[in-house]
Amino acid sequence: MGSMIATYGTLLASIVTAVATFFLWRVTGILAVETKRMADSGSPQVVANIVPNQWSTIHLDINVENTGNATAFAIEVVFDPPLENGEARNDDRPIPFQTISLLKPGQALKSYLSDVGDYLEKSFTVTISWQLHPSSNVRETLSYSLNMKDFKGVSYLGARDPIVQVAEQIKKLREDWQYVASGSRKIASDVYDAADRQRARAELDARYGRNRGDE
Asked: Burial level of 120, CB count in 10 A (0-12/13-18/19+)?
């Protein structure tokens, strides 16, 4: 009887193991398929934009960013009509980021472009192309409209970035200290020294002495 129970127990354990192995094989297969599908679906998405400078809202930056989940190679960015340099940039200098070797997922490149000027009256057609692989002959292309009138009437209270706010406070502190260091401003200080402590003790002794005399 005992040997029969042991036999059935061994058989049951073998069946359970076989079933568990089958389900593990199925789960592993599904996971492999989904992993491959996610890897195949990964693709870059490069966008270019003109945005207000974080330090000054009357100046503009050009920003190129890969918002996808794969690296983009041999990127070309074209604005129609062509972008123009601002006063702070030499007219002979090329517009930045017209060609970019690569952009990793989430990577962004930004550069000062121009003051606001008449940019807010313009709209652009932006065409961006890139390769999925450095040796690929196929180029992915994205084209869209960019209307700068979207920024008309926009205003901000204080610094838009906490880091900028900290930098501004440090700059103000440095400028104030410059006047102090040069002697054009004086710092008022109230120093409590040994003589003050001795005088305070004498006053306390005199007060307690009077109190004891009253008693």
From this structure: middle
Rounded to the nearest 5 percent, the helix, strand and coil shares of the chain are 40, 25, 35
Q: What is the pLDDT of residues 118-148, one digit of tens each?
A: 788 899 999 999 999 999 899 999 999 999 9
Contacts of 60 (CB under 8 A, 6+ apart): 50, 51, 52, 53, 86, 112, 113, 114, 115, 116, 119
156 within a domain of the structure (yes/no): no
Give the whole-angstrom CA distance, residue 77 versus residue 126.
7
**Is pLDDT at 28 greater than 60 in this prediction?**
yes
Q: How many residues would you count in the chain?
A: 215
Domain region containing 174: 162-214
Report which DSSP code applies to 161.
S
**Mean of the per-residue pLDDT values for the chain?**
79
| Closest CA relative to residue 150, chosen from 123, 115, 110 | 123
